[in-house]
Amino acid sequence: MCGIVGYLGHRDAYPILIKGLHRLEYRGYDSAGVALLTAGDKLNIYKSRGKVDDLERFCESKDVSGTLGIAHTRWATHGEPNDINAHPHFNASGSLALVHNGTIENYAVLREALERHGCLFRSDTDTEVLVQLIDYIRRSTGCSTLDATREALREVVGAYAIALIDSDDPDCLIAARKSSPLVIGVGEGETFIGSDASPLVEFTNKVVYLKDDEIAIIRRGEPLQVITNDNRPSQIDIQELRLSVAQLEKGGYPHFMLKEIFEQPQTIRDCIRGRIIDGRRVQLSGIQDNQEQFASASRIVIVACGTSWHAGLIGKRLIQELANLPVQVEYASEFRYSNPVVGPGDIVIAISQSGETADTLAAIKLARERGAFVYGICNVVGSSIARETNTGTYIHVGPEIGVASTKAFTGQVTVLAMLAVSLGCLRGTLSDDAAAEIARGIQSLPDLISDALSVNDSIKTLSATYTYVHNFLYLGRGYNYPTALEGALKLKEISYIHAEGYPAAEMKHGPIALIDNELPTVFIAPADELHEKVISNIRQVKARGGAVIAIVTRGERSITEIADHTIEIPAAPVCLSPIIAAIPLQLLAYHIAVMKGRDVDMPRNLAKSVTVE
Ligand code: F6R
Asked: What parts of the chain have a pLDDT lower than 50?
């Protein structure tokens, strides 16, 4: 989703801003723009539909000088993607430039009021309303730009991260946030801002995560100042950034997605590091420090979106089976508007890679308001969800740049498996020996994933057969029904092939009508207690002329005889099998998308971090 970069310092801002925009490209966008303040205090604004490369080409013959600037990648919400709607937006005189992430919900009312006062609008965006409102307050009251910004932000309803420059105050950069992330990088005599830390990483490792309702005043030659919307000074907490440039680059792979798929043995090693003691006990500090809450909980509600929701479905089975605790899994977007029955005694687990998903964040706030204890499972350290939860566990899989979630999914399921074992032990539903067996299985995951990755070449060959089909069905049962959902989501989001996931036994209640020789079905069928039943589902598909690609445990014979293609994965404990089965599904989606010539890392219309409703 939209990205913000800002710079104030002693170097030329333009190259820093452009590099920062490239770093933020992974978030998804459709236009880009930059505003620079020249040495003569002239505000130059350049915007372009398309990619950051298009903006760079557009700027080739322009004056891009200046040591203060802001830049933006826009993911359209209000108004189509075009040059006019791209950010930065500016006031009538062109003295103020503003970039914004998030949505201003009351923008229509504000726009109408401003129009009544003579403001003319160029774009269809909510952002232009905000910059015109700041300008209007400034003009009508004679107050400073900072005070007008504070006042305007108090009037808007919605979510925002903004950065603002004013040619009448050429040594100042203003930034603010509410429900949309903003990070400030503190350098030597220079300051950077970013929607996340990726644009700052090569310049500084000192960062400040701005909190909701805070405004940062970055003034040349002065220390960073942070105040609240109601003008009280805020505590500045400078943290050390643990992120390297190498983690943000492709490292020789053609796409981030492939790099991230192949990183999984290492990311799972990082995820479990220090959490399995003596090879037999699981220790998660979030559970350890809140034993009372978890021992007395009567149920768990999991809230998440997309891939994280699929991980939640696997978590439900794990927790129910190992800790004998009822679990409900909700789409965060539905939960927040369903007047949910949650309260004291309930534990709400929020799962989110980015830690910034607006729906999940809102679900958490609601659950906390109603007295539930909220546990977060996030990847991005310091993210909003990590901060808004009572406690939680980071998955520690490193930055995920490819829009399609891969290593975060396996990290989330691994954490959920550790959490379920830990809860089972705490609640006395899992014997020490049973816990030790699963703990050993979790420890062997990196090797099992390395083994599963060896099917890459054969999946690439297989993908060529299916590049041009229009629909796919993914079926699985038990622990691997959510894996089927995840496999279908991976394929559809990056190849744009329609794919549906179903519990295999549900096929006969409807989807079987679709089966013919043009609809291939992927069965996720590792050896488990429902294996025979899945085999009979495979026969039903074959009997109707459908092609079958089956993911099976190495050495399996019955399915190999009837399926068109089998992909073998190493044997793993059933409750961990989704982690291993996900690997060939990620590879299948990846290779088909590459063969179709899709933009794998930045598929159309998608954003990496969904910070709007
Ligand atoms: C799919 C994908 C999305 C995200 C969803 C939630 O590959 O990445 O479905 O899983 O937008 O995002 P997070 O986990 O950041 O809350």
From this structure: none
Dihedral sign (CA 418, 394, 359, 384): positive
For 442, list phi and psi in degrees, rounded to 5.
-65, -40
For the stretch 316-366, pLDDT in tens is: 999 999 999 999 999 999 998 999 999 999 999 999 999 999 999 999 999
pLDDT digit string (tens) for 81-116? Answer: 899 999 999 999 999 999 999 989 999 999 999 999
The tokens describing 57, both together, are: 């080409």
* Candidate of 610, 611, 612, 613 to mutate for ligand 1, largest count of ligand atoms within 8 Å of Cβ: 610
Give residue 76's pLDDT: 86
Q: Distance (Å, rounded) from C-alpha 468 to C-alpha 421?
A: 43
- What pLDDT score was predicted for residue 319? 98
Strand order in the sheet with 68-74: 43-49, 31-37, 68-74, 3-8, 191-194, 183-186, 206-209, 239-240
H-type alpha helices, 213-372: 256-262, 264-272, 285-288, 291-296, 306-323, 332-335, 358-369
Q: Which residue has the tokens 């089956």?
A: 550
- Stated as kind and residue range, the H or E segment containing 107 is helix 107-116
Task: Give the per-residue pLDDT at 609.
Answer: 81
Catalytic amino acids? 2, 608
Give the integer Cα–Cα distance in Å for 473 and 482.
13
Q: What is the pTM of this model?
A: 0.89
pLDDT of 399 reads 93
Task: Ligand 1: list residues with CB < 6 Å.
Answer: 305-308, 352-354, 357, 360, 404-405, 489, 493, 609-610
Q: Quick one: pLDDT at residue 612?
A: 78
Pairing of strands 327-331, 346-352: unpaired
Q: In sequence order, what are the beta bridge partners of 104?
A: 158
Neighbours of 237 (CB within 10 A): 11
| Distance in angstroms between the alpha carbons of the first and the last residue of the chain | 12
Q: How far is the CA of 96 from the centre of ligand 1 (A)?
A: 35
